[in-house]
Design goal:
homotetramer
Chain lengths: 119, 119, 119, 119
């Protein structure tokens, strides 16, 4: 069993024991995911960018950061499980697409998408 | 190497080749994560809840769903890598916390958090 | 003084008295806005779409809905004030653009954007 | 007619002409709102905080900022109209609550909520 399958297994039992499948359609889970991402955002909204590396490692903040990251991950895993998405596979495929859309020699050091000759 | 480490490895090369580390502080990555979660949300905002299981499996919609899920996962992995968060570990720990906060006998079939006697 | 100017006036005093201008750059306020929108989302994530009209009017839920709507509005007003955006004016202009992009005869009853012949 | 009523009036005609009321229940509109807030976030995710004041005023970026702000405002107005929320009224009330929760003498210069003796 892979690492992701182990986590999915834990989540499936957790959900089944609480009979929560009825709440967990893909629409509702997309809302769970976005609202949990919003909570991580809330933690960092007043922190300066360059200070945020230290902030997330500070022992007072760390448990909150980890809890929010976990909530986002759980929502994402529940969505993938319900929608039948192979998370590892789609990430690999997307990285391949991104390699094409952001060629290293054009994208280096820039945060904006390079012009696409084919379009 | 575990499954998550393999994905992190791919992302580290991708980021390094483009010299994007300077953009990827935890604050900025929390914004990336929330904005990508917003794109998945956008796909499903006009879809009825009960119809959303079929919608995400429809062959026209499927590639968009997978691409948005992948973008969210990539943002989450980049955040964890930058912040030094062990994703698998924090998810396990959070499931344990959730087991305590939502006891199966009280939470069964309800979407709201049961009252907490200890608080 | 218009209605929006009155609200902006209240917010300006509130912010000035607390010396919060230093936190309120456009980037941070976009994070405030998205995290507050995430909290409204969280309220409705397990509510069925057709039941949500009644849910937001239920006397138990109503104060929470109003508080989250207010938080989103305050974040939006703070952003507009800081960025010098005339909210009323940009909304009018966007409605005009939307009238063009979603012609009534093509968009009627559909939630997806009609094909654009000019593109 | 107040400024907000004028905007609501424009939006009501726009929605009615397209027979979109059926899509616009409060749940769906909360998703619209959060996804539009995510688009504003996306614009600013790689911009440094201190540089973001200039960035939103740059003539290349300005139209995008205004369009996203307008989309968020439209989603918020549609939500308020559907849910029967008086936007101006709830904002005033929330500012009063915030004055109490963040007393100026305690909150001055700090971004975190002061301790609440009453709780």
């Amino acid at each position: 069993m892979t690492q992701l399958e182990e986590l999915l297994d834990l989540l499936r039992s957790f959900t089944a024991e609480r009979e929560w499948a009825k709440f967990h359609d893909p629409k509702n889970l997309s809302m769970l995911l976005a609202s949990e991402a919003g909570e991580l955002l809330a933690l960092l909204r007043w922190v300066d960018g360059p200070a945020s590396d230290g902030w997330v490692r500070d022992s007072v903040n760390r448990p909150k950061v980890e809890a929010e990251v976990a909530d986002v991950a759980i929502a994402l895993l529940l969505f993938c499980d319900r929608a039948g998405v192979d998370l590892s596979e789609v990430v690999r495929r997307k990285i391949t697409v991104n390699r094409r859309n952001y060629p290293a020699e054009l994208a280096r050091g820039h945060s904006t998408r390079p012009p696409r000759p084919e379009e």
